[in-house]
Amino acid sequence: MTLDSESFRRAMRAWTTGVAVILAAHDDESYGMTINSFTSLSLDPPLVTVVLKNDTRIFELITKSHAFGVTILSSEQQELAEDFAGRLHGAERMASITTRTLTSGASILTEGLAWMDCRVVHTYAAGVNTLFVAEVLEAQVRSTDNPLLYHDRAYHQLASGGTHVRPTDS
Fold first, then answer.
1. How far apart are alpha carbons 167 and 36 in whole angstroms?
2. Global pTM?
3. I need a surface site. Which of 116, 142, 155, 165 has the fewest CB within 10 A?
4. Cβ neighbours of residue 115 under 8 Å, at least 6 residues apart?
């Protein structure tokens, strides 16, 4: 028996993730998209993964350029996340932002909690998607406070006044 895609989709809605915008450029064309299928893979070497649908514009640009920039969003950037998740399209989407070009040729948003400059080192076909494994060439953190979260098809914030446990040195 094969699991139907809607059952799988409903189950994945229980998984909470952070929210980021991925940007890529090739031949004077740049584009971006909101993602939540982004994770760290290795600290040594520093590797991250992102999964993108094969028929997207950002997939095409990353496939050609072998590079992308990721900006992790704060809770104050929900509107930006919605713009890049499909509320805005084409040139209108890119006109709404300020970017900075990185060493790899990719761009990042000038605002956000943190950003990474990534160079693709492996790709793996995965159904209608591709898993990109990328080496992080450079990273910068502005803040770790108030990340934008995605859960059950909606954006969320960490509850204010909640308990925050700091790791201890061992």
1. 25
2. 0.89
3. 165
4. 69, 70, 71, 72, 108, 109, 139, 140
- Amino acid code (one letter) for 67: A
Number of C-beta neighbours around residue 33 at 10 A = 22
Residue for token pair 């028929």: 55
Per-residue tokens: 146? 């108030």
For 129-169, what is each residue's pLDDT tens digit?
Answer: 999 999 999 999 999 999 999 999 999 988 765 544 445 55
CB-based burial of residue 70 (10 Å sphere; 0-12 exposed, 13-18 middle, 19+ buried)?
buried
Identify the burial level of 7 via C-beta atoms within 10 angstroms of its C-beta, where 0-12 means exposed, 13-18 middle and 19 or more buried: exposed
Say which amino acid occupies 135. E
SS3 content of the chain, % helix, strand, coil (to 5): 20, 45, 35
Domains and CATH numbers, the chain: 17-143 (2.30.110.10)
- Return d(Cα 88, Cα 102) in angstroms, integer: 24
Alpha helices, DSSP H, located in 2-146: 5-12, 57-65, 78-82, 90-95
The separation between CA 20 and the C-alpha centre of its own chain, rounded to angstroms, equals: 4
